[in-house]
Task: inverse folding
């Protein structure tokens, strides 16, 4: 049995196992961690147990399970507080303290198996078998509360971690008041309950970045109020983010508050637009961001909370609220949250952010003002040309079939469809050209007429089709005009699960300098 | 819920600034600005407003102004121009 107080958190690949001796789910997990240690220690995996108990209880736990890996005492809970989880057992697989490959709390069989696979892959070893029959393991068991949240411990930690650096106004929720109801009554939520941003939680969140708490990241529309790292962290806590998500939230804030993205307009418009966050690069896997199945759906904490954090920030710091500056007629569910990762691993093309000028190993966030995703169904096409035509025909209905040259679009190509393009060597340029070709219609069919008064205005007609007095030339009416002003207005990413010949398009808003243009920034 | 709980304020902590409305004139005079916010067909709407006002108040000095885009707040130079030239202003929407 080895106890230590040094710094065991420095090897290349580290698995940290946080536990309490009186936790039944920790009892379930400990033997499995021990097997993982025995299997992968020779390949270089370092397993460290982190006990939240004193030496006597910790020794009993180690004896009970025959643990042979190093166990350290975290009786002052500073390490636990910095990792920021709410329950034990907690498993964190990391390349270093700041680069988390995989983490989860409680017992979740699928997460444990995935962690085992990742740990083995990182060490270049074969994935070990933790039990003879995986069916013996329960699917899921809740953990016990981390001691960090014991009230007396919270007070001690606040003193030790230094709340002096936190500049936000303190608000006291009186004894007997439910903090969730209190925050809702103050109008600080988005219609769903928010996590109370206590000092400890905000300090834990700030551990996710090296940037100073007081640094102003952006001025948030519509009130152009300064958003410090700390204010963003407060809203990220409320949204339910983990500390390792914070750099992505910071980058999303930077991108959203640029003049090119025009968050003021995106918010104020009566249209459907919401900030859609697209994440690329290594950070996707480091924070467990979903890039696969159910991409725009529920069930993934990083996706759900990063988008929500940005929306809460716009509400609470920027002052943008429905019925106020947010004048959307119908809104859309993505205005709660919309954050997705590109499925770069299943893509037939270079990643979205590489196309936009970044290195593959750089993590980025792209903000796009988008509608809700709508289906592109093509289960029959076996050639890129046919599939490209399907996509074009579906994109033509964006906003209105007669409204061309209005906005950007985000085309989300599913892995199965990507494979069709890959087979035919179809580039993104080819796909864009195909979409432009199949959507091109004679201008006369796009202008307002008696059958349908909606249609292209002269302001949207290509200048080449107007005479010096701004009237249509004689040849203009028969000239075919494609859906998009520029080929590059069709943004293309790959995303979603590996089964299903379904892609999606998210229509944009007004594009160009008068509207909103997609913006990409690096995650730092 | 027996202990009180301290949370950090997630807002911008700005105390709303009370703004007093400008004094309303009981009659139109001087220079009136009509701001077209650049929505489609807003020029048609503003033309009609101008025509009606010229009929109602002969001799009224009317200037037409235009925001570069309806998607963004009026730029500072336009706000300055309104302040310098106009005694009253109508900001006109369309659609």
Result:
């Amino acid at each position: 049995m080895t106890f230590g107080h040094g710094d065991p958190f420095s090897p290349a690949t580290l698995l940290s196992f946080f536990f309490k001796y009186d936790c039944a789910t920790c009892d379930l997990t400990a033997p499995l961690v021990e097997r993982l240690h025995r299997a992968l220690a020779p390949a270089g995996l370092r397993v460290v147990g982190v006990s939240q108990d004193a030496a006597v209880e910790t020794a009993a736990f180690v004896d009970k399970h025959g643990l042979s890996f190093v166990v350290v005492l975290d009786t002052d809970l500073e390490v636990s507080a910095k990792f920021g989880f709410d329950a034990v057992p907690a498993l964190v697989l990391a390349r270093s303290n700041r680069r988390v490959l995989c983490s989860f709390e409680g017992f979740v069989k699928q997460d444990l198996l995935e962690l085992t696979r990742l740990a083995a892959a990182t060490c270049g070893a074969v994935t070990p078998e933790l039990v003879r029959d995986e069916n013996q393991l329960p699917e899921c068991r809740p953990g016990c509360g981390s001691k960090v949240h014991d009230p007396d411990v919270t007070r001690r930690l606040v003193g030790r971690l230094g709340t002096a650096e936190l500049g936000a106004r303190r608000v006291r929720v009186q004894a007997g008041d439910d903090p969730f109801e209190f925050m809702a009554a103050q109008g600080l939520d988005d219609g769903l309950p928010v996590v109370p941003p206590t000092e400890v939680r905000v300090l834990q969140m700030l551990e996710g970045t090296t940037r100073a708490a007081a640094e102003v990241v952006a001025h948030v529309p519509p009130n152009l109020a300064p958003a410090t790292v700390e204010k963003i962290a407060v809203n990220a806590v409320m949204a339910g983010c983990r500390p390792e998500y914070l750099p992505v939230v910071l980058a999303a804030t930077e991108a959203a508050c640029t003049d090119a993205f025009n968050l003021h307009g995106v918010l104020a418009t009566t249209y459907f637009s919401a900030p859609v966050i697209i994440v690329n690069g290594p950070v996707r896997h480091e924070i467990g961001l979903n890039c696969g199945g159910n991409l725009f759906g529920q069930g993934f904490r990083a996706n759900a909370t990063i988008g929500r954090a940005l929306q809460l920030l716009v509400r609470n710091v920027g002052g943008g609220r429905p019925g106020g500056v947010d004048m959307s007629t119908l809104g859309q569910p993505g205005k709660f949250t919309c954050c997705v990762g590109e499925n770069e691993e299943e893509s037939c093309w270079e990643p979205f952010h590489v196309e936009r000028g970044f290195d593959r190993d750089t993590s980025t966030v792209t903000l796009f003002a988008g509608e809700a995703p709508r289906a592109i169904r093509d289960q029959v096409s076996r050639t890129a040309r046919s599939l490209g035509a399907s996509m074009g025909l579906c994109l033509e209905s964006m906003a209105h079939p007669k409204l061309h040259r209005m906005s950007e679009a985000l085309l989300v190509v599913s892995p199965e469809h990507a494979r069709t393009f890959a087979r035919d060597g179809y580039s993104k340029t080819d796909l864009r050209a195909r979409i432009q070709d199949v959507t091109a219609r004679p201008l006369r069919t796009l202008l307002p007429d008696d059958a349908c008064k909606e249609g292209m205005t002269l302001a949207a007609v290509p200048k080449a089709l107007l005479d010096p007095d701004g009237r249509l030339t004689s040849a203009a009416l028969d000239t075919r005009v494609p859906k998009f002003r520029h080929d590059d207005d069709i943004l293309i990413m790959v995303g979603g699960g590996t089964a299903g010949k379904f892609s999606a398009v998210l229509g944009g808003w007004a594009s160009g300098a008068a509207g909103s243009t997609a913006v990409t920034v690096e995650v730092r | 819920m027996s202990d009180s709980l301290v949370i950090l304020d997630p807002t911008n902590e700005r105390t709303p600034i009370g703004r007093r409305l400008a004094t309303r004139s009981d009659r139109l005079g001087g220079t009136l600005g009509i701001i077209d916010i650049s929505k489609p067909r807003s020029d048609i709407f503003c033309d009609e407003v101008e025509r009606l006002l010229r009929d109602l108040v002969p001799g009224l000095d009317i200037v037409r102004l235009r925001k570069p885009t309806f998607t963004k707040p009026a730029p500072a130079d336009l706000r300055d121009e309104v302040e310098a030239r106009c005694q009253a202003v109508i900001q006109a929407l369309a659609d």
Q: What stands out?
A: The CA atoms of residues 34 and 65 of chain B lie 6 Å apart. The longest helix of chain B spans residues 42-56.
